[in-house]
Design goal:
heterodimer, A: alpha/beta, 12 strands, 35% helix, 24% strand, B: alpha/beta, Rossmann fold, 11 helices, 31% helix
């Protein structure tokens, strides 16, 4: 596949209406060291047939964001303290637990990172793929069985009729993750959340799996939220990107806008610090310091060489979000945006 | 001091077989199966250079590293360090070898003892292997800490007080303590966050330049290998399938597996022009691998002899030490590569 065809394909992709809208979501964890604002006032939306990448490092809050959407945040210590999550017009944070159970696995499904822990070792593949179909679609007997076979065919498991009698340990890593994918798409979800689904897979298997997800999206028009820390995965999979850092979305934009014109220094650093395969560089661009401790966050512009006068307000005030061009939003440090245009980028410099 | 061909480390036909299965019945019938984790690896590393060993999980690269570190005894084969046989040697020579070959491990959360302060972690090899006084050791520790980008007061802290990148710096500091000649880097950045990886890779490159260190880098991320290595080898199912100078291997990959690995590497821009080549099928079990031509479209009918998995190496290009593995049986007839695979669906194309 050459670039031309792949870029044509992306434009050919049919992206529909907004199906998921997240407004000002806040999820906090209460610990004895204080309140950790794991997800702190983030907003984004997702259209049908679109892939939104949520990119960030460990601890940036990307997994907590999607577990909040599914309302699976362990509580205590976690609490969704504010915000709205509209899935096809219904605010999921307002519905009762029974209604939420109907949403999970049916309208909104999830593929987790590690297929070995996502699958139950004591049930065979048929039981596990069929479980959601039995609960949500009420399928029984022969129809259930044939639907399970169809699902396994869709994720390209060879010889599904015999393979579905296997237990997870009898499958390879790539096959297991395909089975998890089959469970995810079994009830025709509107939103599919993929939480780093390929980090435990080998490079060649990862490429197979990503292509599979793209094909499934083309067939079903499902909206995918793709969580990753790898900009290579983003370049291959996503239409739009939200970059998370320290519990906030620091930059949002279309994938080309983000790659061609990253405006937040963190996004830029993430793209630049990855070595390239067909280029021999002498030295990699490295971003100094470490991501901050979320229960004791430093000032929003402590990492900005431009800003000579960080003050108390830079620590306490929330960042302001500025739309630089259509759909391209960047977080700036509010008190000194006017003067220095500092990006909001708290960082532990020691 | 190096061997006659100028290599610091040389592995000759190194093998590691693990006995599996059998059980009671196997014990009675005397039938024993082996998992051939590493099956005849040859490589040489020149002083001051970095050799990259790549491959997917289960290909034997970590077992190779363990044998180099003398944490596993090879089933067969030899390890030559500075021209001396390291396996069949006196205990004094082994001690010399072990203090000159150090390691940095993948997971900095698992490789540092949580009950020891950083001072203790770094000074332990010095206490065991040298006759330095306490004060000398203390000074040496703070010197190394500064070299890896930490501060000397941090010697009094425990590992949990550091971030992932800082912990990996402590791991690097520990490996430097004895001024080794060779450091085995077993996936040194794959457990770290993306923005921290570049810091550690740059640190390793700087230290190499400063101390003339030699690295054996185990990795699965190809771009990391391209950035850090002078020479590299690609492992598949316990065997080396291709070996070359790094640039040659990326510019003219010969073996279909190497091509697939490079093809499977993710793009770094949405408009990337990289050819998308997807490898079909899966890596077979190393206990009973199928025919070595199972993924070779050129081989019309694999002979039972192909199942013996006899391989032979042939040079690619001329004179640049670029080798690739072929099926010994039908290389001359069909040019088949050594590439056993399950469910490839490509035979006869």
């Amino acid at each position: 596949m050459s670039t031309k065809t792949s870029s044509e394909e992306t434009t050919k992709k049919s992206i529909g209406d907004v199906i998921l809208e997240v407004n000002n979501l806040q999820t906090y964890f209460v610990s004895k060291w204080g309140v950790v604002k794991a997800v702190d006032d983030i907003s984004f939306n997702l259209r049908s047939g679109e892939t939104l990448g949520i990119v960030g490092e460990s601890g940036s809050g990307k997994s907590v964001t999607v577990t909040s959407l599914m309302r699976l945040v362990p509580s205590p210590p976690g609490h969704i303290v504010g915000g709205e999550v509209f899935l096809e017009g219904t605010d999921l944070l307002q519905v009762n637990d029974r209604a939420m159970e109907k949403v999970r696995g049916d309208k909104m499904a999830m593929i987790l990172q590690d297929p070995m822990t996502a699958l139950n070792p004591v049930f065979d593949i048929e039981d596990q793929v069929g479980e959601a179909l039995g609960i949500h679609e009420g399928l029984r007997g022969k129809t259930l069985k044939s639907t399970v076979i169809d699902m396994l065919k869709k994720v390209r498991i060879p010889a599904p009729e015999t393979r579905m009698k296997d237990y997870p340990h009898q499958l390879s890593g790539g096959m297991r993750q395909r089975v998890v994918g089959a469970i995810g798409i079994s009830c025709n979800p509107v939103v599919l959340i993929a939480d780093e689904p390929t980090t435990s897979l080998d490079a060649t298997i990862q490429a197979q799996y990503l292509n599979l997800l793209n094909d499934l999206q083309e067939e079903t028009g499902v909206g995918i939220i793709f969580i990753t820390h790898d900009f290579g995965v983003v370049a291959k999979m996503c239409d739009r990107v939200a970059v998370m850092y320290a519990g906030k979305i620091v930059e949002t934009g279309t994938v080309r806008e983000i790659f061609n014109n990253p405006l937040h220094p963190y996004t830029e650093a993430l793209i630049k610090s990855v070595p390239k395969l067909d280029e021999n560089v002498d030295r990699l661009y490295a971003i100094p310091g470490n991501p901050p401790n979320l229960s004791n966050r430093p000032s929003g512009c402590n990492f900005q060489p431009k800003c000579s006068t960080p003050n108390e307000a830079c620590i306490t005030e929330e960042p302001i979000l500025v739309e630089e061009s259509e759909g391209h939003i960047v977080a700036y440090c509010a008190p000194c945006y006017e003067e220095h245009k500092c990006a909001w980028f708290p960082r532990d410099i020691n | 001091m190096t061997s006659e061909n100028g290599a610091l480390l040389e592995l000759r036909n190194l093998k590691k077989y693990f006995p599996v299965g059998g059980g009671l019945l196997g014990g009675l019938t005397g039938k024993k199966e082996y998992l051939k984790a590493v099956d005849g690896i040859n490589l040489t590393i020149e002083p001051g250079t970095t050799y990259g060993l790549v491959g997917e999980s289960g290909c034997g690269k970590s077992t190779t590293a363990k044998m180099v570190l003398m944490l596993e005894n090879p089933t067969e084969g030899e390890i030559f360090f500075e021209g001396q046989d390291a396996i069949n040697s006196s205990s004094a020579a082994k001690k010399y070898y072990k203090s000159n070959v150090q390691a940095v491990f993948q997971d900095p959360w698992a490789s540092l003892n949580p009950r020891m302060r950083v001072q203790g972690i770094i000074s332990e090899p010095l206490e065991v292997n040298t006759k330095m006084t306490k004060l000398q050791i203390k000074n040496k520790v703070s010197e190394i800490l500064e070299e890896v980008g930490l501060q000397s007061y941090q010697a009094n802290l425990y590992p949990h007080e550091f971030s992932g990148g800082q912990r990996q710096r402590i791991g690097v500091a520990r490996s430097l303590a004895l001024n080794p000649k060779l450091i085995v880097l077993d996936e040194p950045v794959s457990a770290l966050d993306v923005s921290i990886r570049a810091q550690i890779m740059n640190l390793l490159m700087d230290l190499q330049k400063e101390h003339g260190l030699t690295y054996l880098l185990i990795a699965h991320h190809l771009a990391t290998v391209r950035y850090m290595c002078d020479k590299m080898g690609v492992m598949y199912l316990g065997k080396m399938v291709e070996q070359a100078v790094t640039d040659d291997l990326f510019d003219t990959p010969a073996h279909p597996y190497t091509q697939a690995l490079i093809g499977a590497a993710l793009p770094y821009h949405p408009d990337d022009t990289k050819e998308d080549s997807i490898l079909e099928g899966e890596v077979p079990s190393p206990i009973n691998p199928p025919s070595c031509c199972s993924y070779a479209p050129l081989c019309p009918e694999p002979d039972p002899a192909c199942d013996a998995n006899e391989i032979t190496y042939r040079e690619v290009g001329s004179g640049r030490n670029h080798w690739t593995a072929h099926c010994a049986h039908c290389m001359d007839t069909y040019g088949c590569y050594y590439f056993p695979r399950v469910n490839p669906n490509v035979r006869g194309i």
